[in-house]
Amino acid sequence: MTSPTSSPIQPSQHHQTVVILDFGSQFTRLITRRFREMGAYSVILPGTAPLERIQQEQPVGIVLSGGPSSVYDENAPKPAEGVLDLDIPILGVCYGMQYLAHQAGGDVKRAGKREYGKADLTEYGGQLFKGIEGEFVAWMSHSDSVTQLPQGYEVVAKTEDTPVTAIENNETKRYGVQFHPEVVHTPKGGQLLGNFLDICGVARDWTPQHILDELIAGVQEQVGAEGRVLLGISGGVDSSTLALLLARAVGDRLTAVFVDHGLLRLNEREQVETALRGAGVNIVTVDAREEFMHHLGGVSDPEQKRKIIGREFIRVFDRAAEEQGPFAFLAQGTLYPDVIESAGGEGAANIKSHHNVGGLPEDLQFKLVEPFRTLFKDEVRDIARLLGLPEDIRMRHPFPGPGLAIRCLGAVTEEKLDILRRVDDIFISGLREFGLYDDCSQALAVLTPIQSVGVMGDERTYSYTVALRAVTTGDFMTAEWARLPYDFLAAMSNRIVNQVHEVNRVVYDITGKPPATIEWE
Fold this sequence. Notes:
The active site is at residues 94, 180, 182. There is one protein chain. By secondary structure, the protein is of the alpha/beta class. Helix content is 31%, strand content 24%. The chain has a nine-stranded mixed β-sheet with strand order 2-1-3-4-9-8-7-5-6, with helices on both faces. Strand 15 (442-456) and strand 16 form a beta hairpin. Helix 5 (208-223) packs across helix 11 (377-386) and helix 13 (414-433) runs antiparallel to helix 14 (486-499).
């Protein structure tokens, strides 16, 4: 028997796509996000993707992204043969513009002055800048410049240091900009990208309602009239939204299994059950607290804890699948960033293992249902709103699969988990009460094994130290510690030591990532 297989990303059913060819710019994803925010469906492919792969997406426009290379590098990446001959508009950004100019017979040279950071356009015009008025601040990042224009092109923007900042050829609908219109540091860049979408004539129908209708139709087509679907629920926004979507698509042919491993936050199980049952999801909760605690007994090594939890989760899930089965389909909340076929990875092969119900036994033969494969997290949240997911779950911070086990340093016991649950609840409720929750990307409490001397009343105490941590981040690859107000931290510290008597010391973690990770274990 084979394990669940996942085919490569199927080109979307969507018939109007703007394809972004990725040449390694750190901003490539942002271009896709901007287009989608403007209602145009957009996907990322590797810069060197074969012509057939690009045509599968039925593109109405192409963007050549920026990247670290120079067009004169021996191994400079370039689009496949035939891409530039397609009869659709093409926009080159930074390296993409230099490549377009170079290809068409222009000259690109190392600039006298490397431009990095904000620059003012001294003049601008043409199709790309249509309707834009006033000051245009652009975010530059380049060391090469176009020094001689190719035939058919004209200069449509300049800065003090770069005489050729944007070019266009209206005959062939080829456009180039030597700055990053997709970043926030280019305030009017969105208008420019919108103009490019107008030139492409793309339908602006990529709206949450449209996405939802398409996803439901897609699931119904894949699962058929009889197919039964199994879904593992974690309580996070992705799996909860997926449960609501599948319930709407296939009704009671969905079984959502929620494993309570005893490492959840205060009242989390009740919250999730209430939200999903109330919305008509057929949810089965497996109470496996005793099993998990038994296997975790005395184990203090974090990696060991993760392995045990992963292994036990699969056992419990597998057992539930057999009891509730048979199922032809297994649903997973895989998101677009996990499968982007970009310069950085080979697409479907590098789905992060922790997003899967990792390493399911080889004799389970499921077909995977992954409706969110083309969506970003914020798009899933938009759909969640339409499906009626309660706000506190819809906007909830990420929570690790191993749960509180990795926030309880050292060996896990029921007593320590109980202390941690109460502390975590005070901290998270406090963030909501003070209106700070949405300013943090993730917030957590950690129970340390440190015990220290304190004074409560006139008594000497010897109790635990807890650490609070809150971070802000765009992508979770790097993070800053959240600058929470002192008054708030003071209030939290007071509440915690007064209400959780096993704790007599509260510290706040002010380390970024790197050098620290977001979680402590």
